[in-house]
From TrEMBL:
Belongs to the 'GDXG' lipolytic enzyme family. InterPro entries: AB_hydrolase_3, AB_hydrolase_fold, Carboxylest/Gibb_receptor. Residues 15-97 form the Alpha/beta hydrolase fold-3 domain. This is Alpha/beta hydrolase fold-3 domain-containing protein. The lineage of its organism: Eukaryota, Viridiplantae, Streptophyta, Embryophyta, Tracheophyta.
Length: 120
C-alpha cells in the first residue's frame, strides 16, 4: 500500500528541550528528547516520510498548538520533498470537533479533511 497523504489533527509532539509528565506516563521507557515518537526532530528518517502531502490541523486556542507548528517547521527543514499545509481553526481549543461535532467550525474542519483526502 502506498500512502499519498497524512492528516494530523491537533497533534501532540514534544518541543525542543522539554519532556512533560504526560509523555513519561504514556511511554515509561522513553529515552526522552531523543525518542522520535516524542520529538520528530530526533528522527533521522523524517526526510524519507512515505507520502507526498501532509495536512496539519491546528486550533487557535489549543494548548498544544505550538507542538503542531514545531512539527511543521521540523518537517519543512528535514529535506522532505513533499507538500505540507497548515489548516488552523480560529477561536477553538484542542479536539473541539469531538466535543461539538455539529458546530460550524467542526463541519468546516471535516470539509477540509475531506478535500485533502479527495485530492489525489
Amino acid at each position: 500500500m502506498k500512502l499519498s497523504g497524512l492528516c494530523l489533527v491537533h497533534p501532540y509532539f514534544g518541543i525542543k528541550d522539554t519532556v512533560d509528565e504526560s509523555w513519561i506516563f504514556v511511554s515509561p521507557t522513553t529515552s526522552g528528547l531523543d525518542d522520535f515518537r516524542y520529538n520528530p526532530a530526533a528522527d533521522s528518517r523524517m526526510a524519507s516520510l512515505g507520502c507526498t502531502r501532509v495536512l496539519i490541523c491546528l486550533a487557535e486556542k489549543d494548548v498544544l498548538r505550538q507542538r503542531g507548528l514545531y512539527y511543521y517547521e521540523t518537517l519543512r527543514k528535514s529535506g522532505w520533498s513533499g507538500e505540507v499545509e497548515i489548516a488552523e481553526t480560529e477561536g477553538e481549543g484542542h479536539v473541539f470537533h469531538l466535543f461539538n461535532p455539529n458546530c460550524h467550525n467542526a463541519e468546516a474542519l471535516l470539509k477540509k479533511l475531506a478535500s485533502f483526502i479527495n485530492h489525489s
